[in-house]
Design brief:
This protein has 193 residues and is α/β, with parallel strands linked by helices. The chain contains six helices and seven strands, in the order βαβαβαβββααβα. The protein has a single domain, classed as Flavodoxin domain (Rossmann fold, 3-Layer(aba) Sandwich), CATH 3.40.50. The radius of gyration is 16 Å and the shape is globular.
C-alpha cells in the first residue's frame, strides 16, 4: 500500500550528509511506489522569522504555501536535519514558526487550555545527524532536540507516531559508517517508515 510522503530537508545545504540521506530516502520511497515530495528548506524563499508572533498576520510566501499544501495532503512526514547545539538548525525552527500556524497545524479552543491537533492522521520519521555520540546525547543531555521535535512540535499538532533515528557521531565517522547510514535511510524510504 502506497503512502504519500513529504520530506523536509532542514539542513541549509543540500550538498551535505543530510542532503544525501534525504535523497536516498526519496529515491527508495519512489522506487517502492510511494508518491514523494522533497523540499530543501535552504532553497526556498521565505523569511524564517515570525516578526510579530501571533499578534499580526504575516502573509505566507508562495514557498510556504506550497509546503503547507503538501503536508496537508500527505500521510507521512520525514524530517532530515543535523542536530546543532542540541537541537534543530535555525532554518528548520523558523520554518515551523512561520508555517505551523494556528488554524493550519493546531487551533486553540476558546476559553480553554486545550487545543485541536489539525495535522492528526499523519506519522513522522525524523532522521537527524549528531556530532555527539548518541548515547551521550541521550543520557547526559537528555535529548532536548528529540523532545522538542516529537512532543512540542509534531505531536502537539497531532502527528504520531513520531520515530526518531539519530546518526552519529558524524565528525569521527568513517566512509563505511556513512554508507551504512545511507543504506538505513534507503531501507526506511522503501518501507515508508
Amino acid at each position: 500500500m502506497s503512502r504519500s510522503i513529504v520530506i523536509l530537508l532542514g539542513h541549509p545545504d543540500r550538498d551535505s550528509l543530510c542532503g544525501a540521506l534525504a535523497e536516498r530516502y526519496r529515491q527508495a520511497a519512489q522506487a517502492a511506489g510511494h508518491p514523494v515530495q522533497l523540499f530543501a528548506l535552504g532553497e526556498l524563499a521565505f523569511d524564517p522569522i515570525l516578526r510579530h508572533g501571533y499578534r499580526q498576520i504575516q502573509s505566507l510566501e508562495p514557498a510556504l504555501q506550497q509546503v503547507n499544501a503538501a503536508i496537508a495532503e500527505c500521510q507521512h512526514l520525514v524530517l532530515v536535519y543535523p542536530t546543532w547545539w542540541g537541537g534543530m538548525p535555525a532554518l528548520l525552527k523558523g520554518f515551523f514558526d512561520r508555517a505551523f500556524l494556528p488554524g493550519v497545524a493546531f487551533r486553540y479552543r476558546k476559553d480553554s487550555v486545550w487545543w485541536d491537533r489539525l495535522l492528526a492522521g499523519r506519522s513522522a520519521r525524523v532522521i537527524t545527524t549528531l556530532d555527539t555520540p548518541p548515547w551521550y546525547y541521550r543520557w547526559v543531555y537528555r535529548m532536548p532536540g528529540h523532545q522538542q521535535i516529537r512532543r512540542t512540535i509534531l505531536e502537539f499538532c497531532g502527528i504520531k507516531p513520531v520515530r526518531i533515528t539519530g546518526l552519529g557521531p558524524v565528525r569521527s565517522s568513517t566512509p563505511a559508517q556513512r554508507d551504512a547510514w545511507l543504506l538505513q535511510a534507503e531501507q526506511l524510504g522503501r518501507q515508508a517508515r
